[in-house]
Design a protein that fits this description.
Blueprint: H1 9-16, H2 26-45, H3 60-83, H4 92-101, H5 103-106, H6 124-136, H7 146-156, H8 167-170, H9 181-190, H10 197-209, H11 215-223, H12 229-237, H13 244-263, H14 265-284, H15 288-295, H16 303-313, H17 315-318, E1 326-327, E2 330-331, H18 332-335, H19 339-348, H20 362-365, H21 378-390, H22 404-420, H23 425-428, E3 430-435, E4 438-446, H24 447-450, H25 455-463, H26 479-484, H27 490-495, H28 505-514, H29 536-541
Antiparallel strand pairs: 1-2, 3-4
Helix pairs in contact: 1-9, 2-14, 6-13, 10-13, 10-14, 13-14, 16-19, 16-21, 22-25, 22-28
């Protein structure tokens, strides 16, 4: 890297899009490629990657099973994002900032394959990749060129950037440094297609397989009146059935089968390790996702969020002031442990009539003749009325219960993850159980540590007889129920709150123990990588909360 040491990624990006003007830079580009790919390899040896990004021995079945899990996880995220209208938690300013920061990558869309077709004969694997590249650059039609389409979207919202190859573009004061890292990565690896062909296969697989999540960007753009065509196009053209996602998978499988036939199983696995490293590198390189998460503009709190805050603020007194009064089957005092359950209970119990504050009995309670007079100020009562009016029939009711005791218990663990952080006892009390990193081993760790593991791991530790807290098959004989949940402490109060689908969290625990402490499938609760488009509740329950790489494929 002689002569080019110590430059910023935006400087290297500028050089790479003007490579003909910088004699002698290719060795530096090679060193940068090695650095990026080496960092991805080291990440796989560390502890910060979710199981979805962990390496595994190749077989066609194992590969397709992994891709199916990745795809289904993204589809589930899209469904949850839409069901919860998660776009309402973003602001237009925030979405425009994300569009700007993604410009260096999206205005070089396709660049990772720009050198994929060699001079001379082309085999079927390279032909597949070249076909993908042709689509990326529009197949000779500038109206279909992906960077052009993104540029037009930027212009439609008043974002006019300098020429991509200009120094002004690389020095743009409103674009953060990390926005140039991922495009630099794809440019330097693509410069050496013969040296990094397996890695380019993996990079293609990652980028083309994950575009289904861009449906959330379509929803965001539509919500804020922004042309969604760039994202709609990628959802369509990258589809996993017959589009770029399926083409990438076919290319990987053809390449590895040919390697196995020509050179044997060991050679195939070695090439596969490089392919997977390219996949992981594209998923994790750079820090734009984390930077964007920190830059997010918050929109004003909704009426529902303000009501939830009021319930939480008054919990210390409210949870001891309501005697034996109930909402449904749950004591009102206990509902203060879960404000959202309290709000759902008010709706389900008929105290709040969705869309009609005037007909809601709750507001009789806060009049001068009611038992809650002066509990809330006039301004706060106005917020309660706004919330009631904002509801539609069926809103703010408990979510459908998970299927079976194991799934309901997993939901309990995931729900309590963030709340348990305030419990000092969880940092001192320990549990022994199967080591999540090595199921054949055992480990003893504080309860707080177990809460950072997948729910199944905590459930297995809790059920371990050596801890003496649970007797599988008999809640009545389990000290966890007869002692801990019988006492007046933070945990017992929290678990007396209403659980989704009816009953309390205590009921969920006792049902699980009486059922013999069944565990969910091994991978049912494995944390998945977060993106900038992940549903908010999945972000809230993720054990690290960290976004890898750019946080989005586009």
């Amino acid at each position: 890297m002689a002569g080019y040491e110590g430059l910023r990624d935006r400087d290297y990006f500028h050089i790479m899009v003007n490579l003909d003007s910088f004699d002698g830079f290719r060795p530096t580009a090679k060193a940068l490629a090695e650095r990026f790919l080496g960092e991805a390899l080291r990440r796989q040896d560390g502890t910060g990657l979710e199981p979805e990004l962990r390496a595994f021995p190749y077989s066609k079945v194992a590969f397709e099973e992994r891709l199916d899990k990745v795809y289904q996880g993204l589809v589930d995220d899209v469904d949850r994002y839409e069901a919860q209208r998660s776009w309402t938690r973003r602001t237009r300013e925030d979405v425009l900032d994300q569009m700007l920061q993604m410009a260096p990558f999206n205005q070089t869309d396709g660049a990772w394959l720009r050198t994929i077709a060699p001079v001379g004969p082309v085999d079927d694997v390279r032909a597949i990749l070249f076909a993908i590249y042709v689509d990326e650059v529009g197949g000779g039609n500038p109206d279909l060129n992906h960077p052009n389409i993104y540029t037009e979207m930027l212009r439609s919202v008043g974002i006019e950037l300098p020429d991509l190859r200009s120094r002004e573009y690389a020095d743009h004061p409103d674009i953060v440094d990390s926005a140039y890292t991922l495009p630099l990565f794809q440019l330097v690896v693509a410069e050496f297609p013969q040296d990094y062909f397996p890695e380019l296969l993996g990079m293609t697989q990652y980028l083309e397989w994950s575009s289904v999540e861009l449906k959330n960007m379509v929803l965001l753009n539509e919500h804020f009146g922004i042309d969604p065509h760039f994202y709609e196009m990628h959802v369509a053209i990258d589809n996993a059935a017959s589009g770029h996602g399926a083409m990438a998978r076919r290319a990987v499988e053809l390449y590895l089968e040919r390697t196995r036939v020509d050179h044997g199983e060991d050679a195939m696995q070695a090439q596969w390790a490089r392919i997977w490293n390219g996949y992981v590198a594209f998923a994790t390189t750079g820090g734009l996702g984390e930077d964007l998460a920190k830059r997010r503009r918050t929109r004003p709190a909704t009426a529902a969020e303000k009501v939830e805050a009021m319930v939480r603020d008054r919990a210390s007194k409210g949870r001891v002031n309501h005697g034996r009064k109930r909402l449904g089957d749950t004591r009102i005092n206990d509902l203060f442990a879960d404000p959202s359950a309290m709000m759902a209970g008010l709706v389900a119990g008929g105290m709040i009539v969705p869309g009609d504050a005037a007909a809601s009995p709750f507001f009789e309670l806060v009049t001068p003749d009611g038992p809650m007079y002066k509990v809330f100020s006039d301004a706060e009562i106005a917020v309660w009325r706004e919330w009631a009016e904002s509801l539609t029939a069926g809103e703010s009711t408990p979510a459908a219960p998970a299927d079976g005791p194991a799934e309901r218990m997993r939901l309990l663990v995931d729900t309590m993850r963030s709340r348990q952080e305030r419990e000092a006892a969880h940092r001192g009390e320990t549990l022994a159980g199967p080591d999540p990193a090595d199921p054949a081993g055992r480990v003893t760790q504080p309860v707080a540590w177990w809460f950072q593991q997948p729910a199944a791991a905590l459930m297995a530790a809790l059920a371990s007889k050596e801890n003496g807290w649970v007797t599988p098959g008999s809640a009545a004989s389990s000290r966890f129920v007869t002692e801990l949940l019988a006492e007046s402490n933070g945990m017992s109060r929290a678990l007396r709150g209403a659980a989704p689908g009816g009953g309390t969290w205590v009921d969920v625990v006792t049902e699980w123990i009486d059922a013999g402490c069944p565990l969910p499938p091994d991978d049912a609760d494995a944390p998945r990588p977060l993106t900038l488009l992940s549903p908010p509740e999945r972000v809230a329950t993720h054990p690290t909360g960290k976004i890898h790489g750019s946080g989005s494929v586009h």
